[in-house]
Amino acid sequence: MISKTYNVAPWLASLLAMAVLTSVVPTAAYAKKGAPAPQQGDVPSYREMVIAAIDKHILPNLEHFAQKAGDLSSAIAKDCLQSDPNAASEVNAAFADAVSSWARVATDRIGPARKRDRATRISFWPDPRGIVRRQMRGVLANHNEALLQPGAMEKQSVAIQGLPALEMLLFSGSSSEKSEARKYRCELAKAIAANVSKQAADMQAGWLGPQGWRATMLSPGPENQIYKTEADVAAEIVKSYLTALQIIRDNQVLPWLDAVTKSKKWARLPFESAGLSQSYLSNQIASLGELHRVMGLDAYAKQIAAKDQKKKWIVEWLPNAYKGMAQQAKQLKLPAQAAKEKSADVKQKTRPLARLKFFTNGLRQIVGREIVPATGLFLGFNELDGD
Predict the structure, then answer these.
(1) What is the pLDDT of residues 112-135, one digit of tens each?
(2) Predicted local distance difference test score (pLDDT) of residue 194
């Protein structure tokens, strides 16, 4: 427990009270891949932070996603036209696995994820204007056979190339759909799934080899056109982490909170039609917790506490925040489901989302205002803009 004698910043008072009450065991993936935090006073070097982030977090998650994307492509190619309900169930299960795996990769928008817009090709989101739905309706109406040719999908709008477009194909069909339309839907799903698998494989390959992004990040210097120092490399990873926290808060937690508060049935959450928004968020939280741990950021918290007893509470608050977020995410219900619970108290329905908002705010504040200065890194932008 955190001592009541610690002086806690006012903006974290209510947040800390909730964190202290949390005692949830981390997810299996978090515990399995997470490296032990360095001992007090033994903070990792920038190079150690980068190697751990790449080898213990980014590459294992990418390998897993590439495998699940391939499994999804195979499942759709094999089963999407069969009338057997078990076949459809297998496709849906493969889609859910791919989405969960993608959630752990989507938090790291670095290097190969940005090249050729691979991350956007895999998942065009956020999509506040409904571009995926609008463009996919046009594709389904026109039955353009050219889109089904090998490699053709990669040349189309990024909005119809990835998992959100595939979600629409798999979860918006009608039982009364004509056989010709159903066949085209199936062939289009095959093409999109194959493209997702290719983008995943390309993203993974982009990190490997002597010319890969891993080698680029581990060889900063005057000849490196992207990274001049090891601090530049570490700063990019920390910046990606903080940006992911902000995206989770602004594009998932806040819209979800607004929808439940106002009894809306739709919040434009990632993979909401497939009922996978909660799983997606839970896996993103696990991914960020994993990255935080393997980079040894808690060691800097201990260093801060050793220098200033008033900030000693931060040491326990950080891991408790991830445990708390994991616990709250498990309690979430989709807006459509929450809207049906007319008799439920609004505060009760929104409490998990309100706590997630507090936790994401708190993590961004502590890491941005306390941990980052302690590391000596310069991020090049105000990571706390918009608070």
Answers:
(1) 999 999 999 999 999 999 999 999
(2) 97
| Distance between start and end Cα atoms, the chain | 28
Torsion, Cα 90 92 94 99, to 10 degrees, reads: -170
Please name the residues in contact with 307: beta carbons below 8 A apart, sequence gap of 6 or more. Answer: none
Report the predicted TM-score, pTM, of the whole model to 2 decimal places. 0.87
Provide the 3-class DSSP secondary structure of residue 259. helix
**Whole-number Å distance between alpha carbons of 111 and 109:** 7
* Cα angle 250-372-321, degrees, rounded to a multiple of 5: 55
Structurally, at CATH architecture level, domain 59-211 sits in: Up-down Bundle (1.20)
Cα–Cα distance for residue pair 153/188, rounded to 1 Å: 9
Per-residue pLDDT tens digits for 119-176: 999 999 999 999 999 999 999 999 999 999 999 999 999 999 999 999 999 988 766 7
Cis peptide bond prior to 36, omega within 30° of 0 = no
Percent of the chain at pLDDT > 90 equals: 77
Do residues 110 and 216 lie in contact, with contact meaning Cβ atoms separated by under 8 Å? no
List, for residues 191-228, the tens digit of each pLDDT value.
999 999 999 999 999 999 999 999 999 999 999 999 99
What does the domain layout of the chain look like in residue ranges? 10-51+217-375, 59-211
